[in-house]
Design goal:
Layout: E1 2-7, H1 12-16, H2 30-43, E2 48-53, H3 57-70, E3 75-76, H4 93-99, H5 101-109, H6 122-139, E4 143-148, H7 150-161, H8 168-171, E5 179-185, E6 188-196, H9 202-205
Parallel strand pairs: 1-4, 2-3, 2-4
Antiparallel strand pairs: 1-5, 5-6
Helix pairs in contact: 2-3, 4-5, 6-7
Length: 210
């Protein structure tokens, strides 16, 4: 089985580089919708056995163009939602550092075990996300698409590849509209592609934001 981890398209929050987790549910921008259509156009011929998405609007909307082309519906799983940023939602890193300075220092040092103020630690996302992966492995073979979020995807990649989840912010990039590909075999998970965006136009690839 091979899982493709697709981060949703651009939102106003990703454009402005503010914390946007499980507590916010912004829609895609026009550019974000273009990213979703570009992915669908590029991957429509891939023989998909299942498509899973986070329940959040930005993930669902990103999955829609491909699902519409294939005439299928996504499996919505709450375990794929974004990490909760608690009281940091909608704020810039600079604002968070000022308002929640000690919590921010602890989180940046080790987000694996230290949660944002009122939010979730990465280890909690690893637990719920890996449970979804195990469920998918039990139910499917072949190619499976997961449409999720920046932190969630990076935490899952760390977990699958044996990297400390406390390093998830510092080991993998995951820009909007990017896809990473992991093959599962008897030898374990093998990363084939990381944060690929070749399906996007040059204009979309170089938009500001995260």
């Amino acid at each position: 089985m091979t899982i493709y981890f697709l981060r949703h398209g651009q939102t106003p929050c990703s454009h402005d580089n503010v914390f946007c987790g499980g507590g916010l549910d912004p829609a895609l921008t026009d550019a974000g919708q273009q990213m979703a259509r570009s992915f669908a156009d590029a991957y429509r011929s891939t023989p998909w056995n299942a498509i899973y998405t986070s329940p959040q609007t930005r993930a669902l909307t990103t999955a829609h163009p491909l699902c519409n082309m294939l005439g299928t519906k996504p499996e919505i799983h709450d375990g794929l939602r974004e990490i909760g940023y608690g009281q940091w939602e909608g704020k810039t890193a600079g604002a968070v550092s000022q308002e929640f300075h000690d919590d921010y220092l602890r989180w940046t040092a080790d987000p694996g075990w230290h949660a944002p103020t009122g939010g979730e630690a990465a280890i909690a996302i690893a637990r719920r996300g890996l449970a979804v992966i195990e469920e998918i492995k039990h139910l499917h073979s072949g190619n499976v698409l997961i449409v999720s979020h920046k932190a969630t995807i990076r935490i899952l990649l760390c977990s699958l590849l044996g990297i400390d989840v406390g390093r998830f912010r510092y080991r993998f990039g995951c820009p909007v509209g990017s896809v990473s590909q992991v093959e599962f075999s008897l030898q374990g998970p093998l990363l084939h592609t990381l944060a690929d965006r070749t399906h996007l136009s040059e204009t979309l690839r170089f938009l500001p934001g995260t």
